[in-house]
């Protein structure tokens, strides 16, 4: 089989070394004579994996002591409901900053549960940009302010996070968690489905500040309370053990690579290759995001016509580039360059973009 360059938007590339290690111990994990999937989630062998994943994420992401790391299920989408269920009390407002389709979906769910507002939105600019602090409209009874740190579909990303004092800041970091250093203390809650930067689908990571665990608990079904999972170290019910095992492997890999600062450096280098191909194309490739809002994770662009997009994508597919289609709701092209996508894949894409433009493929 020829080389495949995986630019899928999620689920997406995993580090080769991680897959190889998982393969090597698939039928005999840690001398147990069985796979990690077949172990009890109460067993010593599994619990060590579980705890190690929590500890490693805290270490790598510099998570202060007053935060808990939780492993949840239901994807980031369930967080869209769990957040308002937990925090939206009578007389308070869930305030949302809209920067793309996923923020809209988060808001839609909150509206089912309580009162909401839009603190800022870049919808009128077709989600090409990120709002600035001057644009925010807050209310003194905001229960929280919600943002999406990286907009997977439109290819924009917050470059700096606002400091918000009047209410906890909540961030959906599904598509950029652990891709760069973040000041965790700016946030009350961070959540992310694992299937882009952290591992396979099936586990959702939440990082929550301790004082938020008590909010509204009596009105929330037990399994949907953050506190339930915090009190039981995410072993209240059967966790997705294999997904957490893979998460632990991916975190181990991040540490071996030199941690988040090294990963961030590489991510910048990778994204630059592709943005340079766009910027040096005399308008042949048109980036969707404004330059100061460009995502390091999802690079979105179009060719002059829809027909050109199709031809570019068809040829790319022939050459082994996978997942370069834009999201079905917006079309165009998108290269997702998550942590596990190697530099070589981005070099190859840059070369392909250049040679396609100059008619050399
Ligand atoms: N938020 C963002 C930013 C996403 O990119 C996605 C998935 N692509 C989701 C939420 C939804 O995640 P899930 O499929 O895990 O529910």
UniProtKB/TrEMBL annotation:
PROSITE patterns: AA_TRANSFER_CLASS_5 (PS00595). One of its GO terms (biological process) is L-serine biosynthetic process. InterPro entries: Aminotrans_V_dom (IPR000192), Aminotrans_V_PyrdxlP_BS (IPR020578), Pser_aminoTfrase (IPR022278), PyrdxlP-dep_Trfase (IPR015424), PyrdxlP-dep_Trfase_major (IPR015421), PyrdxlP-dep_Trfase_small (IPR015422). Its cofactor is pyridoxal 5'-phosphate. Pathway: Amino-acid biosynthesis; L-serine biosynthesis; L-serine from 3-phospho-D-glycerate: step 2/3. GO terms for molecular function: O-phospho-L-serine:2-oxoglutarate aminotransferase activity; pyridoxal phosphate binding. The keyword DNA-binding does not apply. Its EC number is 2.6.1.52. It catalyses: O-phospho-L-serine + 2-oxoglutarate = 3-phosphooxypyruvate + L-glutamate; 4-(phosphooxy)-L-threonine + 2-oxoglutarate = (R)-3-hydroxy-2-oxo-4-phosphooxybutanoate + L-glutamate. L-glutamate binds at residue 42. Its main location: cytoplasm. The modification N6-(pyridoxal phosphate)lysine is found at residue 196. GO terms for cellular component: cytoplasm. Binds 1 pyridoxal phosphate per subunit. Residues 4-341 form the Aminotransferase class V domain. It is an enzyme of class 2 (transferase). Pyridoxal 5'-phosphate binds at residues 76-77, 102, 152, 172, 195. Keywords: Amino-acid biosynthesis, Aminotransferase, Cytoplasm, Pyridoxal phosphate, Serine biosynthesis, Transferase. It is found in: Cytoplasm. SUPFAM superfamilies: PLP-dependent transferases. Catalyzes the reversible conversion of 3-phosphohydroxypyruvate to phosphoserine and of 3-hydroxy-2-oxo-4-phosphonooxybutanoate to phosphohydroxythreonine. Belongs to the class-V pyridoxal-phosphate-dependent aminotransferase family. SerC subfamily. Homodimer. This is Phosphoserine aminotransferase. It comes from Halalkalibacter okhensis.
């Amino acid at each position: 089989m020829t080389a495949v360059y995986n630019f899928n938007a999620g689920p997406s590339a995993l580090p080769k070394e991680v897959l190889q290690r998982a393969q090597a111990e698939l039928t005999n994990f840690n001398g147990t004579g069985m796979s990690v999937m077949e172990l009890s989630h109460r067993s010593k062998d599994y619990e060590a994996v579980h705890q190690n994943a929590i500890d490693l994420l805290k270490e790598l992401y510099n998570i202060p002591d007053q935060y808990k790391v939780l492993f949840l299920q239901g994807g980031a989408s369930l967080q869209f409901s769990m957040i308002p269920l937990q925090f939206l009390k009578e007389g308070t407002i869930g305030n949302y900053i809209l920067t793309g389709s996923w923020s809209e979906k988060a808001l839609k769910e909150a509206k089912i549960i309580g009162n909401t507002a839009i603190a800022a939105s870049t919808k009128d600019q077709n989600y090409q940009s990120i709002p600035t602090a001057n644009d925010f409209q807050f209310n003194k009874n905001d229960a929280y302010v919600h943002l999406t740190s990286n907009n997977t579909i439109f290819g924009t990303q917050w470059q700096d996070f606002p400091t918000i004092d009047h209410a906890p800041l909540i961030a959906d970091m599904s598509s950029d968690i652990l891709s760069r250093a973040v000041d965790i203390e700016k946030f009350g809650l961070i959540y992310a489905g694992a299937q882009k930067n952290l591992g396979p689908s099936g586990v959702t990571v939440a990082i929550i500040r301790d004082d938020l665990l008590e909010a509204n608990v009596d009105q929330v079904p037990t399994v949907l309370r953050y506190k339930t999972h915090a009190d039981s170290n995410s072993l209240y019910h059967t966790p997705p053990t294999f997904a957490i095992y893979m998460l632990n492997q991916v975190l181990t890999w991040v540490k071996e690579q030199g941690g988040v600062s090294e990963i961030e450096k590489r991510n910048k280098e990778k994204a630059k290759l592709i943005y340079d191909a766009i910027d040096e194309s005399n308008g042949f490739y048109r980036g969707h995001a404004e330059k100061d809002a460009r995502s390091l994770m999802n690079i979105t662009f179009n060719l002059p016509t829809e027909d050109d997009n199709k031809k570019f994508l068809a040829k790319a597919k022939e050459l082994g580039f996978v997942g370069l289609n834009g999201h079905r709701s917006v079309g165009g092209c998108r290269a997702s360059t998550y942590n596990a996508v190697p530099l070589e894949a981005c070099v190859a894409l840059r070369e392909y973009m250049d040679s396609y433009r100059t008619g050399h493929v």
